[in-house]
Amino acid sequence: MRTLKTGIIGDIHGNLEALTAVLQILDAEHVDDVVCVGDVVGYGADPVECIGIVRERTSVVVAGNHDYGAVGKQALDYFNSAAREAVQWTAKQLSEEDRWWLSNLPLVHRTKDYELVHASFYRPEAFEYIFNPEEATPSFTFQKAKLAFFGHTHWPSTFLDGEPVRHSIQKVVPVDPPGKVLINVGSVGQPRDSDPTASFVILDLAKGRVNFKRTQYDIQAAAKKIIEAGLPASLAERLFHGY
Ligand code: ZN
Q1: Which of 170, 217, 225, 229 would be 18's cystine partner, CB 3.0–4.6 Å?
Q2: C-alpha 153 to ligand 1 mean position (Å)
Q3: Residue ranges per structural domain of the chain
Q4: Domain 5-108+169-178+186-241 falls under CATH 3.40.50.1980
């Protein structure tokens, strides 16, 4: 049977409290499936717990730069110092099986309804950022389906292909627009759009739309664990501000 309602999450970054809150909403929404655009680990204090839950609850996960970074598949000089420290800390928490799972995540996933990538369909292994229409333009060349989802910037928004490519922050996006759309689902575990609530989307094919969603979660608990783990304090503080 065709999956009609899909929760699309990403940039969880080892934030168990945020992941749990988002999954509760997806359960209440009765989604048929959950998929993930990558960065399950990195920054947060619960990488192993998040891997366990994501493996159980999602049907597909594409690789993020932090996922590959934690297993040596992404060079450490790519990361800024706080991120690098978190990647190195995360690497030490992982079991052999966690490492195997992260190493084998694909860079791109394509279905007949939509496609997933962490950063960009143009050179996905380079993990480049798409913040504006100029940066989205090369990605559209390599996007085959009309509808695609990505993460990486932690900025929920939509890019619409065309001459020129356009950027939109509307909260509901129709799934069958005239051209291709590339939707950033925002970040579950470390939002950076000045809204500290966890971000994700629900693709509803029956209703023909993608809805952007936010939920509050226990930021205090997630931040406390980051401090207790000895990770950089800035990674805890930024959760309260959402940047
Ligand atoms: Zn990320």
Answers
A1: 217
A2: 7
A3: 5-108+169-178+186-241
A4: no
